[in-house]
Specification:
Length: about 375
């Protein structure tokens, strides 16, 4: 019974995230939340005394959920603080996907409406935004040190400015009815940070080191392997991979902790088909899954014969590496069967230096 009660409360919180971002806090009714959650008013008032109580719980739910997403985001694996800061901005742009309520900020939406009338909600929103901004302060401080940037401002104030720019981008997206203007604003934020922490022109040994870092470390003679049958749970998206892959992994990372409560995760992998633009972000399990969270799909992936290429280095090199793999396949007339390609992430980016990350790129071979 406790699990059922917890599940119903989570459904109300997830519904609040969507409905409030769609309608705003003031216009949202308890009936709207119940309808979206597909639960009764009696169940609602079992968990929350008022709509404001729901809003406070939703703000905390949002803070915890988004913290998990950003803590496991790909940019965290980048070692250089300037590159990591810029990759954070790129990640914020990459997740501008779907309808406005799907990518705009819950706490940013609420605080604009209720900053004066509901101080408790205002404080909860401030906590969420400020704590997220604080995750950027160490990188900004290190950039200020490395690039000898000084002024009357602080790393904290610049971290908060990044959130002002992003929240402002959401407001313009709402005003203009689409994500394009938000993407432009985030591009401007990136350019500002690039100019503020300008890279010195490489000379002598620095130029040689830069050239060395840019070398693609990819095996070009594939090894033929047999990929085993795999219990695979995933989120599937259809469309251009540069858009769908970040969105799929953002949603997948939110659910990993819940999956691991009842299942043993043995690896992280993507499956994709280029022609129909199908992308799956998911995890391999030791056995058939138990109690999967809503939104995840499962299949027993049959595996089979694959040609394996190995990339060593940052995930940002994957697009170039995959392009090179496809070129090798075409040039050598490697027989390919109609099935999913695989990206298997061998190493853990949380504990592995960026230049030592290993990714297997597997091409289905006839």
């Amino acid at each position: 019974m406790i699990d059922a009660q917890h599940d119903s409360k989570t459904k109300f919180l997830d519904a609040a995230l969507h409905v409030i971002r769609y309608k705003g806090y003031t216009a949202t009714r308890v009936d709207d939340i119940c309808e979206a959650a597909q639960l009764t008013k009696g169940s609602f008032f079992h968990h929350f005394d008022t709509k404001e109580d729901l809003a406070l719980a939703a703000a905390e739910h949002w803070r915890v959920m988004t913290s998990a997403v950003f803590e496991s985001a790909p940019y965290q694996a980048i070692s250089d603080p300037r590159d990591r800061l810029l990759a954070y901005v790129d990640f914020r742009k990459a997740i501008l996907q779907g309808e406005l309520p799907e990518f705009t900020c819950l706490v940013g939406t609420m605080v604009q409406e209720v900053y004066d009338t509901h101080p408790a909600i205002r404080d909860a929103c401030n906590k969420s935004i400020s704590e997220h901004a604080a995750t950027l302060e160490a990188d900004i401080a290190e950039c200020m040190r490395q690039y000898n940037v000084k002024g009357s401002w602080t790393a904290q104030s610049l971290a908060l400015y990044t959130q002002a720019a992003i929240q402002g981008a959401f407001i313009l997206a709402k005003a203009k009815g689409g994500a394009a203007v938000a993407a432009d604003c985030i591009d401007h934020l990136r350019r500002y940070l690039e100019l503020l922490f300008a890279q010195p022109k490489a000379q002598g040994e620095n130029a040689m080191a830069t050239a060395k870092r840019s070398t693609l470390q990819l095996t070009e003679v594939p090894e033929v392997i047999t990929w085993p049958e795999t219990h695979y749970v995933f989120i599937e998206k259809v469309g251009p991979f540069q858009n769908t892959a970040p969105q799929a992994w953002q949603q997948m990372h939110q659910l990993v902790a819940k999956v691991s409560e009842q299942n043993k995760i043995t690896g992280y992998m993507s499956l994709y088909k280029v022609a129909p633009q199908i992308y799956r972000a998911g995890v391999a399990l030791a056995a058939a899954p138990q109690d999967l969270p809503a939104g995840l799909a499962y299949e027993k992936f049959k595996g089979g014969k694959y040609s394996r290429f190995v990339l060593t280095g940052p995930y940002s090199n994957l697009p170039e590496a995959c392009g090179r793999v496809f070129q090798i396949v075409a040039d050598t007339k490697l027989p390919v069967r109609e099935d999913f390609g695989i990206e298997n992430y061998v190493t853990d980016p949380r504990t592995t230096p960026e230049d030592q990350l290993i990714t297997e790129i597997l091409v289905p071979t006839a």
